Amino acid sequence: MDAPYAKLEELEPSIARVLAHNPSAFTYYGTQTYLIGTCELAVIDPGPDLPEHLDALEEAIAGRTVAAIMCTHTHRDHSPAARPLAERTGAAVIGCAPLALETVGPRADASFDGDYAPDRVLEDGEKLEIDGRPVRVVATPGHTSNHLCFAYGDALFSGDHVMGWSTTVVVPPDGDMAAYMQSLDKLRQREDRAYYPAHGPPVTNPQQYVRHLLGHRMQREKQILRLVSERPRAIPQIVADAYPGLDPRLVTAAGGSVFAHLLDLERRGLVERQGDEWTTA
Ligand SMILES: [Zn+2]
Questions:
Q1: pLDDT tens for residues 201-231?
Q2: CB contact set of 260 (below 8 Å; sequence gap of 6+)
Q3: Could you tell me the pTM of the whole model?
Q4: Which residues keep their CB under 5 angstroms from ion ligand 1?
Q5: Distance (Å) from CA 27 to ligand 1 centroid
Q6: Ligand 1: distance of its center to the CA of 232 in Å?
């Protein structure tokens, strides 16, 4: 497929997208930067700091007022373009809290953008107005501890919390499986019409999709519990058994997710560690 890099795509009235040219095993075709509003705009997830992407955004903005540049979280495929875009447009950078964290162990997802410095941090439930329509902040920690979703009318910009092409990577120490599950449950109780994720196609059946994601994680948890109850196992053995035929580029990420499940199970008193191996408590 020819991905529509650097092109402005109108998705519905007041919602448009520009795809950044940063495809990978974690970003699908790349990061989707959203523009909301018509006369006045907000930019959601400005993306990686690539000159071609910034030029495309500037062209899409076409001289209109940018009221805010909003980041869902600070992985390097989401927030680095915030500062240069703010310089080009004069807009304030608002959204998730800054978070500088060195990934512990092998890199499993995009690393953190330590240069992110918002002009204002948004809190859960906060409301602002873009082009006369409300945008509401929905805090959704789990993928990262600072992750936010943004509700605009009955559409939800879901960042990496819920993606349209793959399950979300949840890697400790910052990724937290219990928080991620709670954040999914928070979305399950909402009545959004559609999700616009940072990667992959829109989600047009949000309730059903979120229930499916919750079910998938509960199945995974059960499977991990069953494997460690048979005999003590280290994480690479659990990954080999639980993810047959996995793309080798995703083995580290899968190990991170298994670790996130194990930490959650350990906190609940269901498993314990013996050196590198895990067993039922
Ligand atoms: Zn991310």
A1: 999 999 999 999 999 999 999 999 999 999 9
A2: 170, 171, 172, 175, 176, 177, 180
A3: 0.94
A4: 75, 160
A5: 9
A6: 31
